[in-house]
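Email to the structure team, subject: Enoyl-CoA hydratase model.

Hi all, the expression group asked for a predicted structure before they design truncation constructs. Nothing fancy, just the tokens so they can compare against earlier work. One-line instruction: predict Enoyl-CoA hydratase, return tokens.
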Amino acid sequence: MFSGGFDLQVMRGSMNTAMALAKRFNIGSEDAVVSLSCDSSLQWSCGCQGASLLLAADYRIGVDGAFKIGLNEVAIGMTMPHGGVELARGRLAPVFFNRSVILAEMFSPKEAVIAGFFR
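Reply from the structure team: attached below.
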């Protein structure tokens, strides 16, 4: 199973529903993963927690295509969860860490390999 990230309809609903979903994701409960889905605005991309799920995997394999991969939470007004920041710190090449976590830069699949999203 793979997910494009948090269900943005839930995240945009209310502060309470957004916080409940984020809390479930950060504790790692199974129902949080089931509740994740790809929003149509993120079609053909891996962002908004999808990239954090990718970084959590031991084996990360991808294909080349017309899509982007990155940690875009701050670009859409969210705060990066602490767990996602630490995953990025441990998996991404240092030169790509700030570009990903602070600047929310999105990368082509080839750039994502260099950054460390795939290994």
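Residues 8-115 form a domain with the 2-enoyl-CoA Hydratase; Chain A, domain 1 fold (CATH 3.90.226.10). Residues 1 and 34 are 9 Å apart (CA to CA). Ping us if the truncation boundaries need rechecking.
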